[in-house]
Amino acid sequence: MPLNRWFVIIILFAGLIACESDHRPSAPLGERAALENLANAYETVSEQLPVSPSGLTPQGKLKFVQAVFEQAGYDFTATAQSLAQTSPENVSRYHLDMMELVLLPNQGLSDQAMEDLYNAPQLASIKAIKTLYAR
Predict the structure, then answer these.
(1) For residue range 51-87, what is the model confidence (pLDDT) as tens digits?
(2) Which domain holds residue 60?
(3) Residue 93 is assigned to a structural domain of this protein
(4) Are 67 and 45 in contact (CB under 8 A)?
(5) H helix runs in 22-106, sequence order
(6) CA-CA distance, 46 to 28, in Å (whole number)?
(7) Is residue 9 assigned to a domain?
């Protein structure tokens, strides 16, 4: 095999490994320690903002919440998907607190604005969480 093919294969393999190592898990649902970790991350990230998180645009709020999850070592989208799959009888106070953080970016938004804000998997999860949260 020519040297340039090996180079391409090595580069692709290195990229694949980098993508795998960057994957963050869902925040553990129903665990106080996870919420405390997110609360600490919330404070850390909000200290870097020029305004309070509530003063941000919906897109700014989404980026803020994603940064909070990243700072805490979790993935926002994976957590939203996990929350969306929670059965109503398993929802605890800790689940509700997590839902409140996940739903922060879309407070007061119309359905159309939510569609503009989230990608398709996120939007499906957010809609399911809103239904669960409304119970």
Answers:
(1) 999 999 999 999 999 999 999 999 999 999 999 999 9
(2) 26-133
(3) yes
(4) yes
(5) 32-46, 58-72, 76-84, 93-102
(6) 22
(7) no
User: Residue 56 gets which letter from DSSP?
Assistant: S
Residue 53: CB atoms within 10 A of its CB come to 16
Q: Sign of torsion, CA 23 55 53 103?
A: negative
Nearest to 30 by CA among 110, 77, 95, 82: 95
Whether residue 54 is contained in a domain is answered as yes
Q: Give dist(CA 19, CA 61) in Å, integer.
A: 25
Q: How many domains does the chain have?
A: 1
CA 47/CA 7 separation, integer angstroms: 44
Per residue in 9-50, pLDDT (tens digit) is 444 444 444 444 358 999 999 999 999 999 999 999 999 999
With respect to residue 120, please indicate whether it lies within any of the assigned structural domains: yes
